[in-house]
Amino acid sequence: MNPPGQDRSAVMSERQNVSTGSPYEPAFGFSRAVRIGNVISVAGTAPLAPDGKTVAVGDAAAQMRRCLEISRLAIEQLGGGMENVIRTRTLLTRIEDWEAVGKVHGEVFGSIRPVNTVVQVVRFIDPEWLVETEVDAVL
């Protein structure tokens, strides 16, 4: 749905997409992050190293750091910063990791304090992933 008074071509002309090189982006047809106007949404972000391999297998806190680093880089490419984040979502395969990943979230967002949801999921595409994040920002 387009904002009132805007046609589809106007919205598409202001759209900016960011790719981070994940092999899943072209395979599944999605962008790491999209900016339209002053809104940035970052897709579900897994703890992947630049070579596409999972970082810190078995360490949910380190994986959370990597997920947030990937999101930060994408937001910065679109002209924002972590101070613009208004919502985060934390998805865990082991709910008992909530405190460890929560501390990492607090390191990054302690003074920003976006809304956050933490949920347990059954599994991710790669069983080595313990956490994925989603992030939304408004500039």
TrEMBL record:
Q: Where is this region: Disordered?
A: 1-23
Chain segments annotated as transmembrane: none
Which superkingdom is the protein from? Answer: Bacteria
Q: Which Pfam families match?
A: Ribonuc_L-PSP
Stored Gene3D superfamilies: RutC-like (3.30.1330.40)
Q: PANTHER family, from UniProt?
A: BLR7761 PROTEIN, YJGH FAMILY PROTEIN
Q: Which InterPro entries match?
A: RutC-like_sf, YjgF/YER057c/UK114
The protein in question is named: RidA family protein
